[in-house]
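Two records follow; treat each independently.
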Amino acid sequence: MANSFFRNAFDRVVAARERQANRYVNGALMYLDDDSLKALGTSREELNRKGATRYVF
């Protein structure tokens, strides 16, 4: 039972960090111009829909 508790806690931490990293990357992509986003195959609307956090630093 102890293994399952720690495995579950670890999996939740990893999932939360993945979501945080995705929001950070989407926020960084928001600084690109529309032509660059189009070349990458995405748009501002899609990034906003996925969730984007803009960081000042």
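The next record belongs to a different protein.
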Amino acid sequence: MAQSSTPRTQVKRVPQRASYDPQQIYDILDEGLICHLGFVVEGQPFVIPTAYGRLEDKLYIHGSPASRMLRTLDQGVEVCLTVTLLDGLVLARSAFHHSMNYRSVVLFGTATRVDDPTEKLTALKAFTDHVVCDRWAEVRPPNPQELAGTLVLALAIAEASAKVRTGPPIDAPEDYALPVWAGEIPLQLTASAPVADDRCLPQFEVPRYAVSYRRGRQS
């Protein structure tokens, strides 16, 4: 993956927040759960949220072959994929300078269909383990009928950029003397206690990965 920007990925608004470092891009993608895919069909733009998984320098998405999004992407149309992690609300002394702390990735490219059965299973494993680490090893894998009824697409992480904001509010110099509280309200995605399916077999305890679930790539 190239570390330099392209005309499409170059961050022009507050460019000091930009990063083209592959590892930082991977880290943000690994922590996220939902991406938004933007594409155009006959002049009509669509932005669709969907889950994804990463394996090295590829993102994988999957679903029914009847999906309009997947059918369109399978035709090789250009796509813009975004992932955003919200880390905090930044409260300034003035309404104008309120902001948010965040980490985001924007990725451009075209998707390719995964037809090879081995790669297809590997992609679905990457997708499953991205959502819940090591889950694939415990569950029943897709049978031939399920595998045939699933369309898997790969999107190379080759043209991407990250943008990150951290830190306190940045007020106008004259506003620092205002009698107004300012600072950050940190935010994070946390899991509540697992709720077992009523039809779970009684001998199974809640697995550790469900009890201590957290986001980010876990190794």
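Discussion point: The CA atoms of residues 191 and 212 lie 8 Å apart. How would you locate this feature using only the token line?
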